[in-house]
């Protein structure tokens, strides 16, 4: 995606023709960071628009690039990116409108199979290794994606270490020593995958919806190339999917039997990010994982 529109009207005219205009806006609830609405054009076309303050354009651009990266795999449903723009009042991202509908038979098994297919996708940027060609965002915070040749150093240097540094004021000296030990011995707990996999990056239950085709689709990505276990761990952090999803993924994705030994380490990154965004309510969960492994 290259073009940045200077107004919503410009975007609509460029995408749908000079005769097209917005006739109705309907607010849609559910987002934690951005506002959203459904736009109806004068020909009945409906678009989904996510918007925020003008300085949030980098966040929306990173989301658009992530959706396009997922769509390019042709493995799993993701909303089509239509346009990106900024005017004096806001920045905005236009997406295909997903109305949803009845779920297909075998919904969770199909979603697991398609996610596993995305995780098996051949790396489209072989020079990256683990990481991504640009930094993006995890929630409201910057996510560092500096390319690494190995997964474990990447997860230490670009995931856990920056979050621990940002949360330093929460920890006393004994805990800081445990954290230092834990990070320096991370290769005792994690394993290197065979190769990098494209990850959604923020795959909690709220970032999964039913698509127009009745299948499971993904939204709001924070993509990078890494270990599939990191995506699977995130699905279990806030509620989780039905057991049939995990059974199917274990079959199609060849999930290692000892994955659960590493799940909490991967979720430590997400919990630390929530600690840094929302405050001390996440401290006890972070501390529990540190004490378990250090």
For the structure shown, list the relevant keywords.
single chain; about 290 residues; alpha+beta; Phosphorylase Kinase, domain 1; Aminoglycoside 3'-phosphotransferase, Chain: A, domain 2; 9 helices; 12 strands
Describe this structure in words.
- By secondary structure, this protein is α+β, with helices and mostly antiparallel strands.
- It folds into two domains: 8-96, Phosphorylase Kinase, domain 1, CATH 3.30.200; 107-293, Aminoglycoside phosphotransferase (APH), C-terminal lobe (Aminoglycoside 3'-phosphotransferase, Chain: A, domain 2, Alpha-Beta Complex).
- Helix content is 38%, strand content 18%.
- It is built from nine helices and twelve strands.
- The chain has helices spanning 8-16, 57-71, 107-119, 151-166, 173-184, 228-235, 243-252, 260-278, 283-293, and strands at residues 22-28, 35-41, 46-52, 77-78, 81-86, 91-96, 136-138, 141-143, 197-199, 208-210, 216-218, 224-226.
- The strands form four sheets. A five-stranded antiparallel β-sheet has the order 1-2-3-6-5, sandwiched between helices. A three-stranded mixed β-sheet has the order 4-11-10. Strands 7-8 form a two-stranded antiparallel sheet.
- Helix 3 (107-119) packs across helix 7 (243-252) and helix 5 (173-184) crosses helix 9.
- The N and C termini lie far apart (44 Å).
- The model has no long low-confidence stretch (mean pLDDT 95).
Concise account of the structure shown:
By secondary structure, the chain is of the alpha+beta class. The protein has helices at 8-16, 57-71, 107-119, 151-166, 173-184, 228-235, 243-252, 260-278, 283-293, and strands at residues 22-28, 35-41, 46-52, 77-78, 81-86, 91-96, 136-138, 141-143, 197-199, 208-210, 216-218, 224-226.
């Amino acid at each position: 995606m290259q073009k940045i529109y200077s107004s919503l009207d410009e975007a609509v005219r460029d995408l749908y023709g000079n005769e097209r205009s917005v006739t109705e806006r309907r607010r849609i609830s559910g987002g934690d960071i951005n506002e959203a609405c459904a736009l109806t054009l004068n020909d009945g076309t409906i678009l989904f628009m996510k918007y925020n303050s003008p300085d949030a354009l980098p966040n929306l651009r990173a989301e658009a690039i992530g959706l396009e990266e997922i769509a390019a795999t042709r493995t799993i449903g993701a909303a089509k990116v239509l346009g990106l723009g900024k005017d004096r009042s806001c920045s905005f991202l236009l997406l295909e409108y997903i109305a949803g509908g009845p779920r297909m038979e075998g919904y969770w098994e199909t979603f697991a199979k398609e996610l596993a297919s995305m995780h098996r996708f051949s790396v489209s940027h072989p020079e990256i290794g683990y990481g991504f060609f640009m930094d993006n965002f995890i929630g409201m915070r910057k996510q560092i994606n500096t390319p690494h040749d190995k997964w474990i150093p990447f997860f230490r240097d670009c995931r856990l270490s920056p979050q621990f540094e940002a949360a330093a004021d929460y920890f006393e000296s004994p805990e800081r020593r445990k954290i230092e030990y834990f990070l320096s011995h991370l290769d005792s707990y994690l394993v290197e995958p065979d190769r990098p996999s494209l990850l959604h990056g923020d795959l909690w239950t709220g970032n999964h919806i039913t698509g127009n085709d009745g299948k499971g689709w993904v939204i709001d990505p924070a993509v990078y190339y890494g270990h599939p276990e990191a995506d699977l761990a995130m699905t279990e952090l806030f509620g989780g999917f039905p057991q049939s999803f995990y059974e199917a993924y274990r079959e199609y994705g060849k999930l290692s039997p000892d994955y659960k030994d590493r799940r909490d380490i991967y979720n430590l990154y997400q919990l630390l990010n929530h600690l840094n965004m929302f405050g001390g309510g996440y401290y006890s969960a972070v501390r529990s994982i540190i004490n378990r492994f250090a």
